[in-house]
Write a structure and sequence with these properties.
By secondary structure, this protein is of the alpha/beta class. It contains twelve helices and ten strands. It has a single domain, classed as Aldolase class I (TIM Barrel, Alpha-Beta Barrel), CATH 3.20.20.70. The longest helix is centred in the last third of the chain and has 19 residues.
Length: 303
């Protein structure tokens, strides 16, 4: 079910409050660009700094704007199994198409604890679940054996967003999992390498800003046009890298503000980019815009 290009949406802020109008416009831009789906209130959406009511309002806004024209996933993971269950139930009631559930962070459970955490959540919802493995942020890795065990035990655990940075791990997962279970890259710069060993797409940060290019890269590879996919990878590679020169989503919001899409405002403990990194990203952004114009790649649709 989960294959293609999914955008890990930023949560726009304006004077400290969630800017639902800007969020709605962003979702419309994603749909117009042909994106497969959007992910609300994930890491890129600054979910740890959103209140309970804000998270629900963001999810509801995405569902209402999308109107079934693209898939909507909600990030409902937590280091508390109870909280993750409650968040998943509420997201299902709102009408999302699936759940993205990150590994529990900070408390660093064992592999058995991870299995029990995810399987317990899966038993409380009928929605399809995408696991989210990002050991660099969570401090714990969802082991391959645990993923295989979860896929075999829980019919609605059907996918994984893999942000470990390891092509070898994707190869092992693809070898050991049923072909119906999909693997998506969690890193824009690794989308093409991951797809070359069996991934089915990406959950992208960059596609907030350049959805056409990211989507075209994925579709080209899916159609067997590896050369075109490689060209798009090279076109976007500088952006893929420099959008992470500071903690996500600070750079992507900064670039989106330059493009007139959303405010660059983030919530503490995140803060505005340093002047030096803004200059670096601006140079990369301007180079991308210039090269894109000569590369016969559709320009991103912006408000």
């Amino acid at each position: 079910m989960f294959r293609g290009t999914f955008t890990a949406l930023v949560t726009p802020f304006r004077s400290g409050a969630v800017d639902l109008d800007a969020l709605g416009k962003l979702v419309e831009q994603q749909i117009a660009a042909g994106i497969t789906g959007v992910v609300a209130v994930g890491t890129t959406g600054e979910s740890p700094t959103l209140s309970h009511d804000e998270r629900l309002s963001v999810i509801r806004n995405c569902v209402e704007v999308a109107k079934g024209r693209c898939l909507v996933l909600a990030g409902t993971g937590s280091y508390s199994t109870r909280d993750a269950i409650e968040a998943s139930k509420q997201a299902q009631a709102i009408g999302v198409d699936g759940l993205l559930i990150v590994a529990p962070y900070y408390n660093k459970p064992s592999q058995e604890g991870l299995f029990q955490h995810f399987s317990t959540i899966a038993q409380t919802t009928s929605l399809p679940i995408m696991l989210y493995n990002i050991p660099g942020r969570c401090g714990v890795d969802i082991g391959v054996e645990t993923v295989v065990r979860l896929a075999g035990s829980c019919r609605n655990i059907v996918s994984i967003k893999e942000a470990s940075g390891s092509v070898d791990r994707v190869s092992e997962l693809r070898t050991r999992l049923d072909k119906a279970f999909t693997i998506l890259s969690g890193d824009d710069s690794l989308t093409l390498p991951f797809m070359s060993v069996g991934a089915a797409g990406v959950v992208s940060v960059a596609s907030n800003l350049i959805p056409e290019e990211v989507g075209a890269l994925v579709r080209a590879y899916q159609k067997g046009d590896v050369q075109r996919a490689a060209e798009l990878h090279r076109l976007c590679y500088g952006m893929f890298k420099d959008l992470f020169v500071e903690p996500n989503p600070v750079p992507i919001k900064t670039a989106m503000e330059w493009n007139g899409m959303v405010s660059s405002e983030v919530r503490l403990p995140l803060c505005a980019m340093s002047k030096a990194n803004q200059e670096r990203l601006r140079k990369t952004f301007d180079t991308f815009q210039r090269v894109r114009g000569a590369a016969t790649v559709p320009a991103a649709k912006v408000a």
